[in-house]
């Protein structure tokens, strides 16, 4: 069992899988490891199961969901960079905007100064090749319509 514990610790400390491990819970009883939580991709799930499969005599119960809704491809990463550059060029407080991209869908979250900036952000993203849809969750304050401080 000592070898099992060491391999489990190495799995948790593996830098490549660090972000994956933050969303998982491992419970070990004797030679059974139960994994619960959420994987961001099927690839991450396979990496973890492959590493655990190297432990002789270990049984694995994997009750983990794969977040199919937010699988991010290489194209999505490139698209996200393009979106961020466009927002930086066209919106004064672009750093208040959180951008997520999945399967060509662009999610805009955060705050902008006013309704005009919200529309500009949408328009900028809408002009980018590869954007399939835009989910614009940007908000702005209506309390002070003349000037909104975006500290």
Number of helices: 5
CA distance, first residue to last residue: 53 Å
Number of strands: 6
Largest sheet: 3 strands, mixed
Kindly provide the radius of gyration, computed on alpha-carbon positions and rounded to a whole number of angstroms. Answer: 21 Å
Class inferred from helices and paired strands: alpha/beta
Assign the CATH architecture of the largest domain: 2-Layer Sandwich
Q: Give the integer mean of the pLDDT values.
A: 79
| Envelope shape | elongated
Q: Write down the CATH class of the largest domain.
A: Alpha Beta
The helix-strand sequence is HHEEHEHEEHE
Characterization of the model:
The protein is α/β, with parallel strands linked by helices and 151 residues long. It has 2 domains: 67 residues, Histidine-containing Protein, Chain: A (2-Layer Sandwich), CATH 3.30.1340; 66 residues, Fe-S cluster assembly (FSCA) (GMP Synthetase, Chain A, domain 3). It contains 5 helices and 6 strands, in the order ααββαβαββαβ. The strands form 2 sheets. Strands 1-2-3 form a 3-stranded mixed sheet, covered by helices on one side. The protein is elongated and about 60 Å long. The termini are far apart.
């Amino acid at each position: 069992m000592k070898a099992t514990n060491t391999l489990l610790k190495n799995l948790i400390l593996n830098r490549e899988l660090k972000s994956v491990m933050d969303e998982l819970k491992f419970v070990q009883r004797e030679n059974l490891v139960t994994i619960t939580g959420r994987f961001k991709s099927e690839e991450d799930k396979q990496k973890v199961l492959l590493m655990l499969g190297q432990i002789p005599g270990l049984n694995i119960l994997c009750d983990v969901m794969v977040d199919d809704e937010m699988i991010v491809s290489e194209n999505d990463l490139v698209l996200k960079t393009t979106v961020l550059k466009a927002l930086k060029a066209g919106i004064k407080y672009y750093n208040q905007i959180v951008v997520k991209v999945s399967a060509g869908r662009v999610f805009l979250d955060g705050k902008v100064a006013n309704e005009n900036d919200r529309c500009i952000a949408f328009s900028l993203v809408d002009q980018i090749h590869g954007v399939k849809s835009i989910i614009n969750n940007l908000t702005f304050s209506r309390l002070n319509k003349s000037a909104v401080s975006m500290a």
